[in-house]
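Thread: quick sanity check before group meeting

JM: Hey all, I'm pulling together slides for Thursday and realized we never actually wrote out the predicted structure for the chain we discussed last week. Dropping the sequence here so it's in one place. If anyone has concerns about the input, flag it before I start.
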Amino acid sequence: MDKDNRLVLLNKIYKLYDDFIESIDVACEKFCSVCCTCNVTITSLESYNILFNLPAAKKKILKLKFAAEYGSKRFIPLTTTNRLAVLCAQDKDIPDEDVDSAWGNCSLLTDKACPIYDKRPFGCRSFVSKHNCTLKGYAEMDPFVISVNTLFLQFIEHIDCDGYSGNIMDVMLSFEAQEKNWRNKKISGAPGNGLIKNNPINVLMVPPEHRLKVMPMLAELKKISIQADNQSEESI
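JM (edit): ok, ran it. Output follows.
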């Protein structure tokens, strides 16, 4: 399945999640940027979603912002959500990953606002809090929301399972290297530089106490996943 078809499915997932967030009580609002961190991770498909049809001048601005801070400390994941799920299910060791909120804000943040807000990746969408983080200095998230977030991360990775993931800076800066393949309706694996290969869903990470409550969302996500799997088989 080519990238354009996957974009449709990705945005269906985003819409499903946005509807969920609107149904719960969160304190997040415009210009609340405490959670706009340099540690956000993103998939290659989400990168394409941001840059697709973006004018060349704006693409250059995004690239320059990230390139200017390329040597800075940031979270570089060692495993994806779906790979983590398998490791947990098999009771294997989980890689120790280094992350610190003190490493700073996202390079794109401008006057406490996000220039790509409408196209922001799920890692940003899922940063929600029950109270104002500016006042307390930290977020408070309901355990069920955490379970929902994990579930959505798994399905977003699944529909891009032959793509890759990484820190938003690394994935966005890899765009030029991948753009030729994407224009030709091809999808390539991770090109290195801290990027890791995505994986399909093999096991879901939903704790027992949330399994019943999450079922309606899971049913919708499975419908989207089936569309992705069917279209992938048709493209072979």
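AS: nice. The mean pLDDT is 86. The longest helix spans residues 211-235.
JM: adding both to the slides.
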